[in-house]
Here is the input.
Amino acid sequence: MNDSSWGAPPPAGYWGPTDHGPGQAYAQGAAPAGPAYDARDAQQTRPMPIVPDDVPAHGGDQDGDRGAARLGGPPVRDETFRGGAYHDSAYYQQTPSAFPHGAPPQNPEPMPDAPQPAPAPQKKSAGRDLGSAIGVGVGLGVVIVASLFIVKAVFVGVIAVAVVVGLWELTNRLQERKDIKAPLVPLAVGGAAMVVAGYVRGAQGAWVAMALTALAVLVWRMTQPPEGYLKDVTAGVFAAFYVPFLATFVAMMLDAADGPYRVLTFLILTVVSDTGAYAVGWRFGKHKLAPRISPGKTREGLLGAVLFAMVAGALCMQFLIDDGTWWQGLFLGLAVAASATLGDLGESMIKRDLGIKDMGTLLPGHGGIMDRLDSLLPTAPVVWLLMVLFVGSA
Here is the structure.
């Protein structure tokens, strides 16, 4: 094999095949002009770029660099496989793009994060569509007031319808979320009868209807398999007491001579209490009232409910109720604020146990009927009792 097949000898310090065979050092000279290796060595060799032997390790120029460009970058150690063994080449400088197999990545200093703009302050939200809520509330108020002062029996019918819808919502949620099958048919029939009995026969009629409804629930559930009987009838009796029985006290208030004004006072105080709690709590609320039950309620909101209800109670008892006085209204307003808040928390407990936000979707902006009855139902017996104590039942 002649010398022309190898070209000029490579730089000093380069180990590779020569005309004397692989593994012998070349004499110092110019870079080879032709292929660096024999064909028999090509399959065992990873080529590397040829650099001048007088380029310093730190990448700077020196005299006699033969016009080579200044090269820079981190030192990389190349290990070339030839003849069954690896041979180390000299350290040299090169940019990563010059290496066919890539240079080992370095760890540069991390760039500081760009400053992020401060988030825009979030406005307080009521959590509901206030436009729809106000519209539905006004519509319900018109229906209630119109039926209340035109024909008492029509208002009793409104109460019965609200009771049946509320029972339907409650039993459906119990079945969906807890697999509790409280029988709706005896509850609906017994609940409507309970309201009518309370209006016609007073408290005695309401208790009798309640007992018969509970008995009907027990018998109705016997037509199904016994599995889950106890929890189903327990939920049924609870539903009969919670919705129709408490609503019966509204019908009992209506039976008095000034019944429409007593019911109107009851509705006004409950709505004003809820409104005062919302307005004051939304604006000034900082201390949670019962965070595990209802995180939105605050102690400041409760004080707002008490203040608004007491003022409204004094006005209503003085100007709407026969023989009523303003100081009675103060006590009435305080009691309504307490009962309405407890009623709201009570239904919040039920909804948290069921894992739902609203009992239904029938009323846009409000949820379901039960979401509007939550504070009214426990307040009805409180107002009825105080009215009887203050001005009598006639």
